[in-house]
Amino acid sequence: MTEYSELKILNTIKSPEDLKKLSGEELYALADEIRRYMITTVSKNGGHLASNLGVVEMTIALHKAFDFSTDRLVFDVGHQSYVHKLLTGRAEQFGTLRKKGGIAGFPKTAESPYDAFNTGHSSTSISAAIGIMRADALNGVKRSVVALIGDGALTGGMAYEALDDVGQQKLPLIVVLNDNEMSISGNVGGLSRHLAKMRSARGYRNFKRGFSKVLKHIPLVGSWLSDRFEGLKNRIKYFILPNVLFEELGFTYLGPIDGHDIETMTEVFDHAKKMDKPVVIHAITKKGRGYEPAEKNPEKFHGIGKFDESTGESKASFGNSAVFSDELCRLAADHKEIVAITAAMASGTGLDAFKTKYPDRFFDVGIAEQHAVTMAAGMATAGITPVFCVYSSFLQRGFDQLLHDVCLQDLKVVFGIDRAGLVGADGETHHGVYDISYLLTLPNMKILSPSSVQELRAALDWAALTNDSPCAVRYNRGVLQDREMTGDILSWECIKPFRSVCVVATGRTVETAIKVCEDLNVGLYNARSIRPMDESALSQLARAHYIITVEDGIVNDGFGTQVAANMCMRGSGAKVVTVGVPNRVIEQGSVSEQDEECGLSAEELKKTIQSLIGGIYA
Q1: Each residue of 175-199: pLDDT tens digit?
Q2: Residue 83 belongs to domain spanning
Q3: Residues 292 and 353 grouped into a single domain
Q4: What residues act catalytically?
């Protein structure tokens, strides 16, 4: 275990200016301290470890070459920003990483002037950096802007839209491509193969320098020949070095270089600053570097909960993701038309087992949720039943495709919406609290919100085998209760019989509601189908005095709002009280702390119910 007080060099770094005073030997000693401190902290708090271990030297070099108190550094995703935080005055507070009120696991502009842009999702850095540069031009500000993007994030289409814009406008953006051959899972697709070729083509640079040198030394006509043969050199480049993708987009390509060589990285960054044109710096790094368990299993240590620092062992499980994946594998054994799709999240969504059992029916499209949704729609038109397993907060990126390509055509596509609801320490960029609200706006979309393991299995069975329309099955990160299922998945379970005050809960909130309502004189319903809603149950509820809806989604236009609208259409006098996530930013913390803040904890929910009961029976 490495404590902050033990770090002789990092203790002296109060700002990046202190970093610039260190010798080369001290910089590598600093890198070692940073790694040890991050491993200890993440072992206690959880977080993104492998990605941060891979960018230690690169981040040190960036802060040596640039002054990010005025220059701007924009992280893609931001899960590799821990080293940056440690070098910019936050080392002493780093033990609070991902805790309520502590250091965030992603860049936060409110946390430090060195954080240029809030991030948490992939493929956004180049677009944001362009925006900063164009604003600087309008404001007459002169400074360097750097976008740090991984090869995994470069699989997202938004990154290419931005690269094309930069290149055609010749904006002097510096793009640092951190190439560790992975996103969360191993990278897939044509770009990954292209970068692999680039890694193996280092000899071209030596050839080009030698070729130009020979030409220029020819008496009288050397320079003329060098200019005249520029086209020939470019043709040779096409055959020898596959960096044409970036150069055709208008970038000068520098690399590949060793991303763990601080001196070389610093020299290249210094050179790029002076070029005054778009530059891509291609750096090769090792994800998980310096910690053997993370080097051996970088996928596991990409985002990990608490673990034993000495062994790397973690007690975390896939929970509901594993249940969903297990049921999907069971269905696929008898139904050859079922396929699984992921957007670079095979491990995170528990699909590793499906990938192993049915490799021909498993499709990892990279970090490309929009493409995944429309591809699934195309498959559905040809008689395939695609199941797209995706985090709730990442599915937001494919909203247009959900509407235009899936729902308007009423296609049978199943969405396994993982990490629904509040997610805890990852904070606001990763909360899955919006899916109920935005899915309810889509025509033909069915929405199931199971409250138990048995209901989760039944929900997938119905969506994949019986239903013929788009269907979303949402489930949280943890482990749903193990409770016997009664009735079918589309009916609302009446857990406690009808009373003047009735609670209607959905998803993981049902478990809390059962505990709270056990000794209260209220009715309790488990709304496991959000759309379609159970008309029979709603007819009963229309006779209530108060209906309290409970959901782990945003209350604005969510499940509770739909219940209230239904009561209004029926002419019911029932008053609907909605309990859920308020429409504001819910900061990082534990899920229990977030539940308390949102009124979803057992204690807060009980207070809400008792206040209404008191009003009736007073």
Answers
A1: 999 998 754 445 445 554 544 554 4
A2: 4-201+242-296
A3: no
A4: 287, 369, 397
